[in-house]
Amino acid sequence: MSFFTDHATDDFLIKRTRLPLAGELVVEGSKNAALPLIVAASLMPNGGKLRNVPRIADVKVQIALLKRLGATAELKKGVLDIAFAEWGKTSELGTEALMSRGSVYVIAAAVLRGSRVVIPGIGGDRLQGRDLKRHFAVLRGFGLDVREQGTGLEIFGLPPRAGVVDVNDRPGGITPTALALLIAAFCDGVSDLLGISREPEVLELADYLRSAGIEIIDEGPNRLRVRGPAARSPDIWSVSVDRVAFGTYAAAAVATGGHVRLPRLARASWNNIISPFVEAGCSIKEGASHVEIKGPPRYAFSVMTGPFPMFPSDLGPPLISMMAVAPGLCRLSETIYPDRFDHVRELIRTGLDAAIDGATLHVRGGGNLTGGYWRATGIRESAALVLSGLIHNRESRVFGASALRRGYEDLPAKLRDLGAQIFDIGESGADPLMIRPGRRSS
Asked: Does position 81 have pLDDT exceeding 80, yes or no?
């Protein structure tokens, strides 16, 4: 089995008429938790082992970059064994870093292993307010010299030194706090991290580091005291279920009037992820290890994104398909990335009854959705367009959806497993990414 599924053009055709999606899916491990955990595992005294690692492009990039620095890694059936076998082979991290924002964590491995770092730039979705200024401040807080070179950077002044570091993470942020936590955990001494984020993925990284004997003490709501380095390699660690992927699969089934059986989320993430499904009147049956969610949405609902424990910004776009079929006026208020509605204009053009008012989206369900040709952008926006194609009355095409591979373990294939008619648009005789649902149940 390949690491992840490659699409010839990353364009999709979604066939017409509504089909209730139904079935059971395995939800991959969390992308945002796995990326810093991989770096942490590589730095353990005898390496580390992780299970439930998602087979996505960003993970492939992360492993490739660590191998450049001298790590050995093997990923089989979601289980990753990784360790550093030698000192850095190179300080040039390469163009792979331009694909993934999570590549910033590899900088921690490089500087802790004594490599002077030259990197062409850090990739990821381009969203307003998302930059690397906080990350640079974190690196400087550990005594490193960071010099920007066009879109890239050079880091030297090694090794990093424990101390007081003002992370000043943004609401809902993850990467600056996780970067600071990684460096502090493997420095010799005590570091005080100020202005940290407490997103679930950050807390999972902290728990993993504690399992290696690293002392991490809460010193207040936004402050951690960290004493490193690691005393031992932890036992195998299972990456938590991806809460955004969970919500995406649930939204796809509910929007088509179907049902899906999914593994349970961690209790800490459960209430905020499930809240819009409850408000929409969906049927939710909880079991010991699984949950079944059934549509269609019976009521209009409203969502406001925000830092944990509020609703995650990344799951806002996929919910638009539910809003499009819910009876009444729904509202999605985005407090993290106010420009997250660019893809909605594509949907409005093809029949979505919606209006964008600053950072709030108003959607009136039940409109005549005609389908169309849409251009994808980021990970979650691409997923939103694919899900919207499932509920349109004619076939739809989504172009340039390569970002899906960075955040989901083949979302089109999983939707096909539930009954969706989605096809890759190939250039050599293959079909496009075409979305063709069937009749939606009442």
From this structure: yes
Q: From CA 272, how far away is CA 353, in angstroms rounded? A: 26
pLDDT per residue as tens digits for the range 194-245: 999 999 999 999 999 999 999 999 998 899 999 999 999 999 999 999 999 9
What value does the mean pLDDT of the chain take? 88
Angle among Cα 380, 382, 387 to the nearest 5 degrees reads 95
Tell me how many degrees the CA angle 321-323-324 measures, rounded to the nearest 5.
65
- On whether residue 130 sits in a domain, the answer given is yes
Do residues 32 and 415 make contact, with C-beta atoms less than 8 angstroms apart?
no
Helices 133-141 and 175-186, packing angle to 10 deg:
20
Q: How far apart are CA 93 and CA 64, in angstroms?
A: 9
Count CA atoms closer than 13 A to 315's CA, side-chain side.
Answer: 29
Which two tokens mark 208?
A: 């993993």
Looking at the fold, whether 179 and 94 belong to one and the same domain comes out as: yes
Q: What is the pLDDT of residues 402-435, one digit of tens each?
A: 889 999 999 999 999 999 999 887 643 334 466 6
Cα torsion 287, 290, 291, 292 to 10°: value is: -110
Q: Give the pLDDT of residue 123.
A: 67
Using an 8 Å Cβ cutoff, are 384 and 363 in contact? Answer: no
Question: Rounded CA gap, 388 and 252, in Å?
Answer: 9
| Cis amide linkage into residue 171, ω under 30° from 0 | no
Report pLDDT for 128. Answer: 43
CA-based angle 5:9:14, to the nearest 5? 85
State the CB neighbour count (10 A cutoff) for residue 309.
Answer: 13
Looking at 238, 270, 303, the residue that finishes a domain is 238
Measured CA to CA, the distance from residue 29 to residue 139 in angstroms comes to: 28
Domain CATH number, residue 376 = 3.65.10.10
Domain end position, chosen among 185, 204, 238: 238
168-186 pLDDT, tens digit per residue, is 998 889 999 999 999 999 9
Q: Is the dihedral of CA 172, 173, 178, 184 positive or negative?
A: negative
Q: Is 440 inside a domain boundary?
A: no
Residue 437 has pLDDT above 70, yes or no: no
Is 1 within a domain? no
The CA-atom distances, in angstroms, between 187 and each of 61, 178, 232 are 25, 14, 14
